[in-house]
UniProtKB/TrEMBL annotation:
GO terms for molecular function: transmembrane transporter activity. Its main location: membrane. Gene3D superfamilies: MetI-like. Residues 22-222 form the ABC transmembrane type-1 domain. InterPro entries: AA_ABC_transptr_permease_3TM, ABC_transp_permease_HisMQ, MetI-like, MetI-like_sf. This is Octopine/nopaline transport system permease protein. One of its GO terms (cellular component) is ATP-binding cassette (ABC) transporter complex. It is found in: Cell inner membrane; Cell membrane. The chain crosses the membrane at residues 13-46, 53-78, 98-117, 200-222. Belongs to the binding-protein-dependent transport system permease family. HisMQ subfamily. It is a multi-pass membrane protein. Keywords: Cell inner membrane, Cell membrane, Membrane, Transmembrane, Transmembrane helix, Transport.
Length: 241
């Protein structure tokens, strides 16, 4: 009973802190996914551009950030970034150490990793679009901006939903690695609670259950979004013009 009381929501319980930590995990993952979406879209466009230099840059990005361990990237962004900011501060006359905020560094690191995977998701979704639709749009005189807005973007987003769901799950689990920066996300809070109470089994199981709840709910959300997108499949751009 004493162990279970530790998971309560009173003044001596850790339950509320674990719930807040789970919300922090969701916040950092959502921020990372947004950063990754921007980077992924840029890299996908580069790889689809046909320009050999841009294609090479895109390939380097996806190869490096999908091949290097995630923890190493987090270390590089957090500690390397803090060192860089400190050096800039010293050059401007500021003495002392300047550290990057844990949330910003963690979200940026996971976002960069996420971007490498999202780039391939977006590229694959674009290649799955019927070439006939794009050729027909060009034939009736659609300019590139209208073609992108009416045909490409809606279909890429629809086709990318399953892949983005996988990337979200990957980023959600990668967020546990941000605990090395001291951010009070779910993994870090579970570690602190376990070390403070010596109830390692209890709190690591509790943390694992919360991760499982988050991933299960995420699966339901993305599956629902996929079903809805397929039901409301956008009409041909020519029909909308």
């Amino acid at each position: 009973m004493a162990s279970l009381e530790l998971l309560g929501f009173g003044s001596t319980g850790w339950g509320a802190l674990l719930i807040l930590a789970a919300l922090m995990t969701l916040a950092v993952t959502a921020t990372a996914l947004a950063i990754g979406a921007v980077l992924g879209a840029i890299v996908a466009a580069a790889k689809l551009s046909g320009n050999s230099f841009l294609v090479a840059l895109g390939n380097v990005y996806t190869t490096v950030f999908r091949g290097v361990p995630e923890l190493l990237i987090i270390y590089l962004i957090y500690f390397g970034g803090s060192s860089a900011v400190t050096s800039i501060g010293k050059a401007m006359g500021y003495e002392g150490f300047l550290g990057l905020p844990s949330f910003a560094a963690g979200a940026l690191a996971v976002g960069i990793i996420s971007g490498a995977y999202q780039a391939e998701v977006f590229r694959g979704a674009f290649l799955a679009i019927s070439k006939g639709e794009l050729e027909a749009a060009s034939a009736i005189g659609m300019h590139r901006g209208l073609r992108f807005r009416r045909i490409i973007m809606p279909q890429v987003l629809r086709l990318a939903i399953p892949g983005l769901g996988n990337v979200w799950q990957l980023s959600l689990k990668d967020s546990a690695l941000i605990s090395v920066t001291g951010l009070a996300e779910l993994m870090r809070t579970s570690q602190v609670a376990a070390g403070s109470t010596r109830q390692y089994f209890l709190f690591f199981i509790a943390g694992g259950c919360l991760y499982l709840i988050l991933t299960s709910l995420s699966d339901r959300i993305f599956n629902g979004a996929e079903r809805r997108a397929n039901r409301s499949m956008p009409a041909s751009a020519m029909g909308q013009a």
